[in-house]
Structure formats: structure tokens, C-alpha cells
Design goal:
The chain is an all-alpha fold and 239 residues long. It contains 9 helices and no strands.
Length: 239
């Protein structure tokens, strides 16, 4: 049961976050059913599902349920999405996808012992966790803090292109690693080091909004990485 759940979650993370460019998401929101990227997105999901399920024909019903439901959920999201409700719809969208996955796992539970396939549970769990802590967390953070408008061009001439995004990804990977290794002191050291480096820039900027924006982003980033790390440890013990 847990093995199938991990596989389906991994396919979802790959299709919905890792291999869905922002360009595709915006095009789907604008053109809805007429967006070619809606169908490219479904194709990516289909391939990801086939790979993680190891092309096992016993899972044909699960494949059909997930792909068809994904289509209708994404179309509904595009139809009702506005700037004001984007965060709520993002949460509902993910909840709907996860509910379908949970339903599929529940349906297949009585038959799982009869389905023969090679399981790489630990590797699949680690892969899903790394995707969640990098690209998935980046999108979640962007969705949460998008309600605050900060001048993104301010100081851009003194910053490397996309440096903030890469720093955030590395930061969360380190936190995830420290949680898995139970090295809590490392998280404290990382947070302290970031605070020291950031303090000079923020104190010189004299911009209260920017200070609060960075603080909120840092706390969300650390919180997500710690949560994913703890979930990884809990699930890994049960495999």
C-alpha cells in the first residue's frame, strides 16, 4: 500500500512540479481547453506514471483514473482561477490530486500482494523527497508570498541571475540532509549564517517590507524542508 502511494506521489511531483515549466502553467490558465500545453502536461504525467509503475498492465485502471481526473481538475482550476483566489485554488488543486491518489491506493490495496513488480521503495521515497524539497517547495513558496508585491528589479544589477532561487534550493537540501542525519545543530548553524549574511543587506536597505518579505520566505523555506525531512524519516521507518 505504502509502496504504491510513494510511486504515485513521485509521478505527481515529477509531472506537476519538476517537468511543468511556468510558461505551461500560465498558458493553461489563459487558454484553458485550447492550451496545447494542457495536453503536453497530461502526456508528461502519463509517461511519469508508466515509468514509476514499471509499465505494469495490472495498474491500467489506476492509470486511467489518475490521468482523466488530472485533466478535469486542471480544466476546472483554469476555468475558475483569478488573481485573488490563485493561492486557494492551488491548495484545492493539490488536495484534489492527492485525494484521487489516496482513492486509487485504497482501491488497489486488496490486490497489491498479487501484483508482482520490482520495488525500489527507499530510492523512490528519496527521489520524491528531493523533488518535493527543491522544485515543489519553490512553487509552494512562490504561491504563498505572491500576495506581497516587492520590487523584484530593485538591486538586481548587484545580484547574480536567479541566485536567490538557487540559494533557496541549496538551503532546503542542506536542511533536509541535516534532518535526515538528525544533525539539528547544523540547521541552527545554517540559519545563523544566513541571518548574518542577510543582516548587512537588510540594515542598509532600510526597507521594512523587504526585511519582512525575506524573513517570511526564509521561515517558510526552512519549515518546508524540515517538514519534508521529518515525513521522509517517518515513512522510511515503515518501509
Amino acid at each position: 500500500m505504502l509502496s504504491l502511494f510513494i510511486k504515485l506521489i513521485l509521478a505527481h511531483l515529477i509531472g506537476d512540479f519538476l517537468l511543468q515549466p511556468e510558461k505551461w502553467a500560465k498558458h493553461k490558465a489563459k487558454h484553458k481547453l485550447g492550451s496545447k500545453y494542457l495536453y503536453w502536461h497530461l502526456l508528461v504525467h502519463a509517461i511519469a506514471l508508466l515509468v514509476v509503475l514499471q509499465f505494469n498492465v495490472e495498474y491500467w485502471l489506476a492509470f486511467c483514473i489518475i490521468i482523466s481526473s488530472h485533466f478535469f481538475i486542471d480544466v476546472a482550476k483554469a476555468q475558475f482561477k483569478t488573481k485573488k483566489n490563485s493561492r486557494l485554488l492551488f491548495a484545492l488543486d493539490q488536495l484534489a490530486h492527492l485525494s484521487v491518489i489516496a482513492l486509487v491506493v485504497e482501491v488497489y490495496t486488496p490486490y497489491l500482494n498479487k501484483i508482482s513488480a520490482i520495488d525500489y521503495n527507499q530510492a523512490l521515497l528519496l527521489t520524491a523527497s528531493i523533488i518535493a524539497v527543491t522544485s515543489t517547495s519553490s512553487i509552494i513558496m512562490k504561491t504563498i508570498i505572491s500576495k506581497w508585491n516587492i520590487d523584484e528589479d530593485a538591486g538586481k544589477e548587484h545580484s547574480l541571475e536567479h541566485a536567490g532561487a538557487y540559494i533557496g534550493i541549496l538551503e532546503r537540501l542542506f536542511v533536509f540532509l541535516f534532518v535526515v542525519l538528525q544533525f539539528w545543530e547544523g540547521i541552527g548553524f545554517l540559519l545563523a549564517a544566513k541571518s548574518i549574511f542577510r543582516f548587512g543587506d537588510l540594515s542598509r536597505s532600510k526597507d521594512r517590507k523587504l526585511t519582512e518579505y525575506v524573513l517570511i520566505g526564509s521561515l517558510i523555506s526552512f519549515g518546508l524542508a524540515m517538514l519534508i525531512g521529518l515525513l521522509y524519516l517517518k515513512i522510511a521507518r515503515e518501509l
